[in-house]
Write a structure and sequence with these properties.
about 65% helix, mainly alpha
Length: about 120
Amino acid sequence: MTATGWFQIGLYLFVIVLVTKPMGVFMTRVFNREKNISHPIFVDRTLVYRLTGVDERREMRWTEYAIAMLLFSGVSMALLYIIERTQRWLPSIHRRFANVSRPLAFGRGLIHNKY
């Protein structure tokens, strides 16, 4: 391994150690609902909670959680499919990649590929 590689590993570990304590304090304050650095940004959560139907005083049942996870996964998969099928026309991609074919967008093309 080159010196640059070792430097990158060391820098990465240094940054991880550097942010561990501040992030731990921040997460503790968030989970204990204390004021923190992001409080002014997210102080009005009630509007978002009302729009999404969240009741923060009540725990979700396992069935509600399962339905929420399935819906989130379905929406994420549909969004990813749309991005893959229309990536040629997306404004943020500087290299104009071709749109992904239907079988590859669903991952089916990789299963039947013969080498």
